[in-house]
Amino acid sequence: MNTDSTDVRTRVSQAETLLEQGRPAEALVLTKPLADAADAGHPALATHATVLKALGRTEEALAYNLTASRRFARSGVAWHNLAATLGDLGRGAESRSAAERAFSLGLDAPQTWSLYARSLLAVGALDEAERAYRESVGREAGGEVVIELANVVWMRRGDLAEALTVLDDGFRAGGPASPLVRAKARLMEAAGDAAQGAHLLAMAAERLPTDIPVLLAAAQAALETGAGVRARAIADAAVALAPDSPEALNQLAIVQLGLGQPDQALATARRGLALSPDHQSLIGWAATAARALGDPLYGELYDYERMVGVYEIATPAGWPSLAAYLSELAEVLRRMHPYAQHPFHQSLRHGSQTMQAIAGSTEPAVRAFFQAIDAPIRQHMAWLGQGGDPHRRRRTDDYRIAAAWSVLLRPGGFHKDHFHPQGWISSAFYVETPEQALATDERQGWIRFGRPPLTLNPPLEAAHHVRPKPGRLVLFPSYMWHGTEPFTTDERRMTIAFDVVPA
After folding, report:
1. Interval 75-86: pLDDT, tens
2. Is 60 exceeded by the pLDDT of residue 282?
3. In whole angstroms, what is the distance from residue 200 CA to residue 189 CA?
4. Cys bridge to 205: 218, 248, 340, 396, which one at CB 3.0-4.6 A?
5. pTM over 0.85
6. Which CATH superfamily is domain 305-502 in?
7. b/e string for 96-127 if b means 16 or more Cβ within 10 A?
């Protein structure tokens, strides 16, 4: 063992520790010179790629994974890592091939089977994907993969009992109780049985009294099913266990609002924001409490005229017209919507959502979309201007797409009112719109802003609407409540949504 190799291992280990601590920028300083060395080893290349992905620089990470797969072509792990990054970019076919190469080299890890399953979903091989998920679960009943399998079963066949069985079997095989019981309750709610889900979470909170995520889920479910007193007791217990947890304080503020205590809710949200100033959910609930109180903070955070931007994209190069482009884009996206049911952990109802990342797609129409939205995003950032409010103070001169997906709503479809906790600027881009519905007095199919998903007294109704139009892009703060007015006409509504974060 020479000094140089010892030093490399030490620095790789230090970088891994920094990653675990949520300090990827510091880890990058350690890994970049190691990975850029002419004789970089596989640990250095792999760790540097992981650091880049933690920073949202997935395309850059791919280059290092490709180098590793070429330099260490007999390493199943190198091909696994390449498959994972290709999957993160939405390049399903390439991810599938890389995973199959890892298998051919003897790798048989549950993690490889799960990323293989995701790559199969991305290319529409749903039967094979489901089998691959079961192979992964059979090797290790990890909570995330069991939940993904249950979601696929639910979306494909809408069979609640079968999807619940997947979760129960995962638990009996040794899967973690907390995420599985929370997923089970969400699945029940998505299938129309919120009361049963709330009952399940109430029992889980009694049996897991120190599990903060279970307590928060139980408090929310209790509130949504009319058990406000119980919700308050559970939320108070969570805050007592974790008094400096922004998530616990966020849930307490929600419960206080639901109990008609907006003054307490605003104070609690402010306490959370003192700990985590950019916490989008806390900002959103603080704005809701401020609106209920008539506090000027609401106007600062929900300045529709200066924060909700409406843009029309230019026709991408290579298409004769915007209509021709949108027609091809819709055809490509429709192939990504093979599901019968909505995901049980998302806001949409009576529709489907793509299950693969699309921002890195190699489909020409999808790639053209992300090129076409660059100018409107930059225009919007410039239009926002500088400011000390929680939205504008994060503005920089650049951005990156944190996540992107497509939603297809069928007749009766809608989005529940929600916001995007992981974003900064969120969006709705309209590929297809239900024209008959849009013309109704009820504004069916329109995007609405400002209505929280709690029934308050007095109720807070939507305060702003934007009419969809094919080719139209709407940009708004990620903490801003938004949803869709349900439509009943025999039409479809297809969108692309994405979250932008400062770079």
Report:
1. 999 999 999 999
2. yes
3. 11
4. 218
5. yes
6. q2cbj1_9rhob like domain (2.60.120.620)
7. bbbbebbbeeebebbebbbbbbbbbbbbebbe
